[in-house]
Amino acid sequence: MYKKNILAIPQGDMINYIHDGCLSEFEEYILIKVNNGKIIEQGKYNLENYKNKKYQAFERFYGSAKCNESLKKNGIQDVFRTEPF
After folding, report:
1. Residue 9 has what DSSP assignment?
2. Does the structure show a pLDDT above 60 at 60?
3. Pick from 2, 33, 42, 51: CA 20 to 30 A from residue 84's CA?
4. Measured between alpha carbons, how far is 71 from 51 in angstroms, rounded to an integer?
5. Model's pTM, two decimal places?
């Protein structure tokens, strides 16, 4: 069974080390979008553009019906409030 995923491959020198290494930042990233086992898109991004793409994906996911349904199913609501508590 294939899934739709994006592979992030760090390139170049490490700019910022973050403990455990998986969050460390590198000069550039190659992103490869895969759907049903086939490469459908790929590109090379500098660190700033990579961070922007990650942030946009985060916003899309946490605003999605799938995410909200999952949160409600687990008894979690209003996680991302826009007003102060």
Report:
1. E
2. yes
3. 51
4. 25
5. 0.69
Task: Yes or no: say if 51 and 59 are a contact pair by the CB < 8 Å rule.
Answer: no
The DSSP string of 18-84 is: -TTSTT-EEEEEEEEEEETTEEEEEEEEEHHHHHHHHHHHHHHHHTSHHHHHHHHHTT----S-SS-
Radius of gyration of the chain (CA): 16
**Mean pLDDT computed over 51-61:** 87
CA distance 78 to 83: 11
Instruction: Find, among 3, 1, 77, 15, the residue nearest to 50 by Cα.
Output: 15
Torsion of CA 31, 33, 5, 47, to 10 degrees: 20
Tokens 């290494």 belong to which residue? 21
Distance CA 65, CA 63 (A): 7
